[in-house]
Amino acid sequence: MLNTPVTIIQPSDGWRSLDLRELWDRRELLYFFAWRDLKVRYKQTLFGVLWAVAGPLASMVVFTFVFDKMAGLPSDGLPGPIFYLSGLVIWRYFANALSAASNSLVGNQAILTKVYFPRLIIPLSSCITGLADFLIALGVLLLLMAYYHVFPGIAMLLLPGLLLLAMAAALGSGLFFASLNVKYRDVGYILPFLLQLWMFCTIIVPYSEVAQRGGAWRFVYGLNPMGGVVEAFRWCLLRGAMTGPGNADALWMLLGTGVPVALFLLAAGLLYFKRLEKMFADIV
């Protein structure tokens, strides 16, 4: 009789449970989760990928009418549609990735209770799936910029780094909310409200206006990790057309505050997620 090898899986505590080698060994599973989510998103839809365009464009029209035309809020000298769409493109990636990651464990409870695999793959795949919508929306933004005769410069090469920073903030926050959502389903109702408030605090008023109010306001604004990402995203694409009082030095100071906050969110989210991971299958 042949001896069948037995693998015993035991939970570990702290950072030892973050086995990056195991995650790399199962990278194909990460790919299939991301591909599955992407197909499900557009399966049996009438307009398909056009929904990735309709969302930011509709928000852009509303924001331009309300905040630019009616309220007359400053936009760093940029046309209202470009100012708001440039913020919405990177913001919607962050918000959609955070929302999808937060609901990913509950949405995959049937898999969680039947087979073992690194649970981190599920929320991580949700953040990767959102890249498709981001690239489509970015293409629409570039077309709108061409319409207004605004063209990006060499600073556009910094966009991948900003996207990684947005992904880190979304994944870190998403891991925290995903872990809470397994125990308390109220998270699914609270999160959209929090994201709505977060959005208004991020993309409506340019940082140049906040900077004029003094150092304390600059520091508070910098604690928002997406504040620096959105402003840097605009600067990298539109700096040639900006006429506001903002400057590159102030922008890098803003990122200097936001980057550590984003990395802290990622580290704290990972630690909290791995701490509760061993209980997901029992309570989901």
Explained architecture:
- This protein has 284 residues and is an all-alpha fold.
- The protein has one domain (25-283).
- 71% of the residues lie in helices and 0% in strands.
- The protein contains 13 helices and no strands.
- It has helices at residues 20-25, 27-42, 51-70, 80-107, 109-112, 121-147, 159-183, 187-203, 207-211, 215-222, 225-238, 248-276, 280-283.
- The longest helix is centred in the last third of the chain and has 29 residues, at 248-276.
- The radius of gyration is 21 Å and the shape is globular.
- The model has no long low-confidence stretch (mean pLDDT 84).
Q: What is the gist of this entry?
A:
The chain has 284 residues and is mainly alpha-helical.
List the helices and strands and how they pair.
Elements: H1 20-25, H2 27-42, H3 51-70, H4 80-107, H5 109-112, H6 121-147, H7 159-183, H8 187-203, H9 207-211, H10 215-222, H11 225-238, H12 248-276, H13 280-283
